[in-house]
Amino acid sequence: MASEGPRNEDRRGAGGPGIDLDALREKYREERDKRIRADGNDQYVEIAGRHAHFEHDPWVEERFERPPVSDEVEVALIGGGFGGLLAGARLRQRGVESLRIIEKGGDVGGTWYWNRYPGVACDVESYCYLPLIEEVGTRPKQKYSPGAEIFEHCRALARRFDLYRGALFRTEVTEIRWDDEIARWIVKTDRGDRLRARFVCLAVGFLEKPKLPGIPGIADFRGVAFHTARWDYAYTGGGPGGDLDRLGDKTVGVIGTGASAVQCVPHLGASAKQLFVFQRTPAGVDVRANRPTNLEWLSSLPPGWQKRRIENFHVLTAGGWEPEDLVGDRWTDVPRRIHEAVVETGRTDLSVDELRVISERIDFEKMEEIRAHIASVVKDPATAEALKPWYRQFCKRPCFHDDYLPTFNRPNVTLVDTFGRGVERITETGVIANEKEFALDCLVFATGFEVSTEFARRAGFETIGRGGLTLSEKWKDGFETFHGLHVHGFPNCFIMSLAQSGYTLNFPYLIDLQADHIAYVVGEVLARGARAIEASREAERAWCEEVSKRGEAADLDFAERCTPSYYNDEGRPGAKTLSRNFFAGSPTEFANLLSSWRAEGSLRGMTTSPAVGPIRRSESW
Length: 621
What we know:
The chain contains 21 helices and 21 strands. Strand 9, helix 8 and strand 10 form a beta-alpha-beta unit.
């Protein structure tokens, strides 16, 4: 398969000898311990009540009214992001016409509808990240797409598969309840809707609910404050491309230094009179080297090229081997080096512990390179030192950007390193950090999204299954699913989440795997004339045991030694953390497992019951 042409990445060497591994381990431990907090995830407050305004939708007109809807569909898709879009697309491909998206935003797109902050873009290359490129006909303009292009691709997906038809936007689900007598889900919304659906697909997103730090005084600030996922362009001026022309006389503070901050800080630094970046933990910022798409190369690719490229990326990033690295970027850099180091040993019988030693050494070398890169770009030695990440590369999601680090060379930009403690307090007029108050006109929370909080909290509604059992009750002691999609006691219900499912750096890949599987199951149920389908208790237990066994084999010690993040439940990995609740295997292994299950054709592990009457469609269907 043809590559995309010359690659411009700065390919630094594999790292020289002389790294003191013991000293680095100790440094990593010291830095981790500075950041461990007794309250863990409780350090964040829910965006509700007095904080509800942080979730206000800035992309729609304030007033919106419509009459309540009361009808019935085959499939209700809760969420209009990639989950709802891909489930809808795959269902359409299997001939399911009666379906409806219910979405609280004003359009499809999910994450890419909400996130329109300046500089927003994807860190996975567009040719892998944008799903169904061949089917939709999208031609990405760059290797890494900006948010506006991804949002437009989402809209193109909706148009291509006729998913706008019947969609209910600006509508929040308040409850989903199974009615066993009629074998339908009753969906209630804040618009007074009462919908009946044979199937529901909970596609509420992996990174959808903004996360707000519970800093004392957060509600006291009298200046302008907003989350990056609800950017206030009326105040800043400009748009996603930058040029924030209303900040020339403003002092701005940013709390958070993850991916969102890495992308928006350069634009704030270029426009604000003064910018303070408050840092608890520095990001590991590597070279991005974006470039325009070679359209001649793109046009030359044979049918099926995207699937092949995506699988190549996932095999390599999971530590597998491919004869060619089709993507060739910083995501595949470390796995490639580890593979080369293993080959250099000349052995094929390396133990798990030996492989871990090699992986750790390569990781240390890589992070040393990143720290050296920071020192070479940032001119002030103290600032450069504070920006250096002291942890393993995948303790936090890596960042890739070419303008973030140079921003700290601007005279109007100040890094406020809190030495792992975080901001102490927010006042009416600013922020207190390191026992000093910083007066601000504007405060931006670049604090990411809730990942490991309860599903109902992130979804914004409760799901009530057979016998009144809620999903929160079902999962109170840990996740229980079959294939990460089906839950015993919740018939005809599909949950698109990370819980006990495959995990990948490229979320749309997993989402599409789930969507394709859901469409198959729905198609089989309809073809067989079944009333309902549900995971058996035995199958659920077996899957839980499989996930647990794989989790025990995974390197839990790695998660425990990592600096706090959502990857390890803020430094306290346990049964419900990201590192312990997903299928511990490569994404392609998870894909093959689902594919083999479908190929059997027996719906093994699922129970079905006879149908109850035809579905009743309203005139709109």
